[in-house]
Specification:
Length: 310
Amino acid sequence: MSIFIITLNQMIALFIIVMAGYILTRAKMIQKEWIDGLMKLLANFFLPVLIFNSLQLEISPELAKNGLFFSWTYVVFCLVGMGLGLLFAKLFRIKNGSELCCWASCSWIPNIAFVGVPIIQVLLPPQALFYTSLSIVSSLLLTFTFGIFVMDLCSKKSGTKISAKTLLNPCTIALLLGFLTLFLDIPMPKALLSATGMLTSATTPLAMLAIGSIMSRIPFRSIFSSWQIYVVLVIKLIILPVIAYFVMSIFSPDYIFLAVFVISAAMPMPAPLLASLTAHGGDLMWGTRFVVVSTLASIITLPVTVMLFL
C-alpha cells in the first residue's frame, strides 16, 4: 500500500471521529461544559502523558546529538512561520489587533500531538517518536514564551510576564521526567508503561471529538466565510511544509529526522491552544474557524505532502 493511501486512510479515520463529535454535540449527547473540561484535560494531562510515553525508548549518543539539532532548528522554523504570518498580514493590510494576533500565531502553531503522532506511528519506526516529542515541546515552549509576547504585541495587550510557572507546566515536567528516565536508563514498570500507552492511544480520538464539538457551535456557512483564513491556511499547510522539505533535506542527518520535521511542519492548528490565543487578545471566532478549517483541509494536504516529499 502506498504511503499516500496509508496517510489518507489515517486522516479519513480522524475526520470520522471529528464528525462523530459534531453529531453527538448537535444531538445534545455532548455538553459544552464537558468539552471545555476535556480541552484542559488534554493540555494538562493527556499531552504530558503522551510526551513521557514517547521517550520510553533506547537511544544512541548519535540520536541524542541529532535530537539537540532537531530542537533548535525546529524552533527557528517556527519563528520563520510566525514571521511569514506577520509579513502576509502586512501585505494584506490587516490592522485589527485581534486578527493580527491570529495571523501571527495560527500561521505556525502545530497540532503535532493530536494529529501528527498517529500518522508518524503508522509511517515511521518507534525512534521517530523521540523527534516527535521534541517538536511538541519545542513548539509549546515557544508558544508560551516568545509566542505570548508577540500575541500581546499584535493585540496591543500589555502586562503579561513570562514566569517560572509558565515554563514549568505539565508538558515540560513530563519532558524532564522522560529525559531523566531516558538518559539514566531507568527502567519503568511494565504496568506503568501499559497504562501510559493506553492513555496515549486515547489522546487523539478525544481531541478529534473536541474539534467536532467546537465545529458544532459555529453556523456551518460562517466556518468557511473568512478569506483571511485561507491565506493563513496556504502559509501553514502548503508554504511551510515546502520550505521545511527543501531546507531540511540539505541538513537532515537521516530520513526519519527529515520525515518527522516535514510532517510536523504540515500540521493544522491545535484546538487546546485556543484558550491561550483568546487570553492574549486573539479573536476567538477567527481562531475557532481556523482550527476547524485547517483540520479539515489537512485531510487532503497532509497525504499529498507525504506523497510528494517522503
